[in-house]
Amino acid sequence: MHSNAQQKSKKSSAADKKLEALRAKQEKRKFKGASILDPSLDISLDEFTSFTAHLKFSKRVFALLGAGLSVSSGMATFRGSDRHWRGHEPSDLSDIGAFATDPATVWWFFSHRMMKAQNATPNPGHLALAKLAESNSQFFAVNQNIDGLCKRAGFPQSQIAQVHGDLFSVKCSKHQSSKNPCSYVADVTYPISQALTLPAYIDISDPNDPLPKLSHTDLPHCPKCNSLLRPNVVLFGEATSLETTKRIYEFTSGGPIDLMLVVGTSAVVLPAAMYIPIARNTGARIAFFNLEESDEEAGRVWSVDWYFKGDAAVTVAELLKGVVGTVRGTKLAINHASKIEA
Ligand SMILES: [Zn+2]
Questions:
Q1: Which of 112, 133, 265, 273 is 20 to 30 A from 63, comparing alpha carbons?
Q2: What CA–CA distance (Å, rounded) separates 276 from 257?
């Protein structure tokens, strides 16, 4: 009898341990399910709870990502008084006409942006969005940022449309030539050539610091046709590629959208401005993550929407944690350049 009692007690202690482990697991899950809200944020518990419930229920999720997402990674928004680059308006240098007349200055400008983006790190906002995309193949994003940070955060490339192109890609300047167009495209990392390496220890955005002289032959040339290579970004005076536009249309016309996330963008510039009404028309509820509410009609917050005020990198990570869990750490790896021949 004595040994039976011992056996029973052994059994019950094993069962207790199992139960304890199960409880611990459930607690962990509960934490991952995160109904805990960071009190330092200006978000009400009601909004947090209603958004989390809607996100969990949402199948087709659409996102519009803008400059505000990358600000806390150190990327410039090119707004405000310190936006000038060597006395130029950034928009004047991101221009097809400027590349035609002064490709060297345009290449220095983009090399500088590449260097900064390469040294930047994806923030919790990028990582949370990438995790959401990994966990939901029906999540699709239109990215206005060219900094490559979503890609480095692990965002599946089949689920994101780079409407303004990619800093870490070059293409042949004859890609749209009426005579003998050239389809050369390649992924690159900074510096794209020895000649386009920025001088160390000086800020080349300051016009008082001299730029190294560059001759035409120093600029990167196409290995297929020897024309100039150019950044594979959408410059002023150009339109988003037909293929990218088609991918976005395929998503937006592919069925009702349950939820749209508008992140770090005032969404007032076309074509970005049209995505919010398109999503609304399919029945989507909209969640805005921005420092300020837009005063333009397209970006206006309706009473059925959510508006999460603050640094988008912080608020996005906080609001998505109910589904993707808490994101920690950063991915530093930069994909090595590989040549793509299109
Ligand atoms: Zn070429």
A1: 112
A2: 11
* Measured distance CA(305)–CA(21) in Å, rounded: 40
Q: What is the mean pLDDT of residues 214-231?
A: 96
- Confidence (pLDDT) at 77: 78
Do residues 206 and 287 share a domain? no
Known catalytic residue at 336: no
Number of domains in the chain: 2
Given a cut of 70, whether residue 181 has pLDDT beyond it is yes
**Which domain, by its residues, includes 177?**
78-119+168-233
How many angstroms separate the alpha carbon of residue 104 from the centre of ligand 1?
A: 18
Strand-pair category, 139-143 with 160-162:
parallel
Does 222 count as an annotated binding residue? yes
Q: Count of alpha carbons within 13 Å of 71, Cβ hemisphere only?
A: 18
Averaged over 199-206, what is the pLDDT?
80
Rg over alpha carbons for the chain, rounded to the nearest Å, is 25
- Which helix (DSSP H) or strand (DSSP E) does residue 62 occupy? strand 61-65
Residues 156 and 272 in one domain: yes
CA distance 163 to 146: 9
Dist. CA 171 → ligand 1 center (Å): 8
What number of other Cβ atoms are within 10 A of residue 82's Cβ?
Answer: 9
Would the CA dihedral through 28, 138, 309, 312 be positive or negative? Answer: positive
Question: What pairing do the DSSP bridges indicate for beta strands 165-172 and 229-233?
Answer: antiparallel
Pick from 12-16, 82-86, 177-181, 313-317: least confident: 12-16
Given a cut of 70, whether residue 1 has pLDDT beyond it is no
Q: Would the CA dihedral through 265, 267, 271, 274 be positive or negative? A: positive
CA of 102 from ligand 1 middle (Å) equals: 19
Q: Which contiguous run of DSSP H or E holds residue 289?
A: strand 285-290
In this prediction, residue 2 carries a pLDDT of 53
